[in-house]
Structures are given as structure tokens and as C-alpha cells.
UniProtKB/TrEMBL annotation:
Keywords: Membrane, Transmembrane, Transmembrane helix. The chain crosses the membrane at residues 6-24. This is Methyltransferase FkbM domain-containing protein. It comes from Adineta ricciae. SUPFAM superfamilies: S-adenosyl-L-methionine-dependent methyltransferases.
């Protein structure tokens, strides 16, 4: 038996009200439950990393529901008193600056002893690193490195959650899907399949770099920002907002568009362009350092661009 039109509309209205009630009731349950003693538990769809206030302490968490860092009474990341300088490594590997990092062997500060980044991190007790990567598999090894705090998240201009494309090669995983128009002649290289084959799509917390910088004591020097974000590197830098002026040196991995090819050499769909990166950095007071910049993967015109605040 069919319901009269008004009766059907009434039933739909009642069901809608009921579903809204269930949604807010469930939301209240989530917000009232406790995780890590003083930290509010995160549900699926958690809206990114935020500062959580407890009765006696503050914490920083991400959607993986894992405690990331302790904050002091002023709301800044707790660091030893000896620390004077901070480096930020976005898109970190499992070893960060201690691993097989080609660019880490080239970048230095001309006005002081020309140690590589790896040497300086090993030898400088006044240096602290914040390593950010959405790959939870890196957390265990990174958390064992002295003077380094790992944060499991992706950095992006919009905070919340985003799809994360996990590629066969974990170092190629990205917020971007693969470029369907990539030149298949590149398949002769061992890295091609691992860096073009998506194995699964998950969700990750996304944070603005501005959020991270805002919980670093303003008295500390943000000496270096290293970005390897698989196609969204410039987006990462842009997410620093006005806090970008705190950073002295920036390393950005970027691809040049090889116009000689019939098909694209760009790995990711909608990846940031090299020209846009150069323009943005110049407009924000950073000079391109050609001498310290280097090739990452010549086959796809991938480079590590180095920028210094002001003139060299």
C-alpha cells in the first residue's frame, strides 16, 4: 500500500531529525571520552592535528590517536634549554637527516664552518629537528633519534583530513594521484613502477605549517625548512602564511616540465610547477641558491631547489 504524498514526506522528515539527533549524540560521546589521560579521543574523520588542553598539561595529537609532542606552560613544544636552533623536515624518511640524503651532503651555511646538514645535526647539541610525515611506519625509527620529534601528519594549506595515495614505493606516496599522461618510456627505470602504482588510498591528518611554527618558541631560530612532499612542496611552503618570514633557508623538491617529451615527465597530477615556486619564493624575500641546489632524478627533471632569505 502506497503512502499518501504528505505522509511519506512526514516520515522522511522524522527520519532526518532522528539521524541528526544520532549524529550529535555520537559526537558528544566521542568528545567526552578520554584518550591518553588528558587528551580527547579522536574519531574517524578527525579534523587534523590540534593542541589539546588537559588539566595539567597540553599535548599535540593527530588522527592516528598517538601522542605527538608535549607542550610547555606557554603552549610551545618542550625542548631542552640548550636548544637555540630548529630544523623542520617535511616528508621525512625513517632516518631524517641521518639517512641517505643526497641534498644533506650539499647544503651548508657559507658564513660558518661548511659542515653538511648530516654532520651538523650529529655534532650540534643546540639543534633540534621536527620531522613530519604521514607514513606511520617511520614513527618508530624517527622517535629513537635524539633531539628529534616525529609528527605523523601531512602538511597542506587546508587543515582537516585528505585522501593519501600510498604508492608501491613508500617514498613516492603523496596527497596527489599519479599523472595518467606520464611518458611510458620512463618505464625502463627501476623506480617507475613503484612511483606510479598506487596500492591503496587512506586518509591522513593535514596541518598547516603555520600551525607547527606557532607552537615553536619565537625566541628560537628556524634555521631550515626541508620539504619533500611529492608534488605539493610549494603548497607546504604557502601554508606557513606570515610565519614563513621566521625561516632562513628552504629546500624544496620540484620537477621541471620537460617540453621536449611528447608526454609528460611529471609524476603527479596537479603537481606544483617549478616556475610558480621560483616566483613565490622571490616574492617572499628568498633568493635562489643555484650553487647549493642539485639534481635528484635527471630522468624526470627532478631537482632540490635551495633558497636563502635575502641575498647571499
Amino acid at each position: 500500500m502506497k503512502c499518501p504524498p504528505m505522509t511519506a514526506m512526514y516520515i522522511i522528515f522524522i527520519l532526518s531529525i532522528f539521524n541528526i539527533f544520532l549524529f550529535f549524540h555520537r559526537r558528544q560521546e566521542i568528545c567526552s571520552s578520554k584518550h591518553l589521560d588528558s587528551t580527547i579521543a579522536a574519531s574517524s574523520g578527525y579534523s587534523g592535528g590540534i593542541i589539546m588542553n588537559g588539566q595539567k598539561q597540553k599535548e599535540f595529537v593527530t588522527m592516528v590517536q598517538k601522542h605527538m609532542v608535549d607542550l610547555n606552560s606557554d603552549g610551545y613544544i618542550s625542548m631542552p634549554d640548550i636548544v637555540k636552533r630548529v630544523w623542520i623536515d617535511i616528508g621525512s624518511s625513517k632516518d631524517s637527516f641521518l639517512g641517505d640524503c643526497s641534498i644533506c651532503q650539499r647544503v651548508y651555511w657559507p658564513h660558518r664552518s661548511p659542515m653538511t646538514l648530516t654532520q651538523e645535526f650529529q655534532q650540534s647539541n643546540d639543534l633540534f629537528v621536527i620531522a613530519i610525515d604521514p607514513n606511520i611506519d617511520f614513527y618508530s625509527s624517527l622517535s629513537k633519534i635524539p633531539r628529534l620529534i616525529p609528527i605523523i601528519a601531512a602538511v597542506f594549506p587546508t587543515e582537516g583530513t585528505r585522501a593519501f595515495y600510498e604508492y608501491q614505493g613508500s617514498g613516492c606516496s603523496s596527497l596527489l594521484e599519479p599523472n595518467a599522461n606520464i611518458d611510458r618510456k620512463l618505464a625502463i627505470y627501476e623506480w617507475f613502477r613503484p612511483c606510479t602504482k598506487v596500492t591503496k588510498i587512506t586518509g591522513v591528518s593535514t596541518l598547516r605549517l603555520e600551525t607547527i611554527l606557532s607552537i615553536i618558541d619565537p625566541r628560537l631560530s628556524i634555521e631550515l625548512l626541508k620539504v619533500d612532499a611529492q608534488g605539493v612542496d610549494l603548497d607546504v611552503v604557502k601554508s606557513a602564511g606570515k610565519q614563513l618570514k621566521r625561516i632562513d633557508k628552504v629546500i624544496i623538491e620540484i620537477q621541471l616540465d620537460d617540453e621536449k617529451r611528447n608526454n609528460s615527465n611529471i609524476l603527479y597530477k596537479n603537481a606544483n610547477s617549478a616556475s610558480e615556486t621560483l616566483e613565490y619564493m622571490k616574492a617572499n624575500g628568498f633568493a635562489f641558491d643555484k650553487d647549493q641546489s642539485s639534481v635528484e632524478n635527471k630522468a624526470i627533471e627532478e631537482y632540490n631547489y635551495v633558497f636563502n632569505k635575502g641575498k647571499l
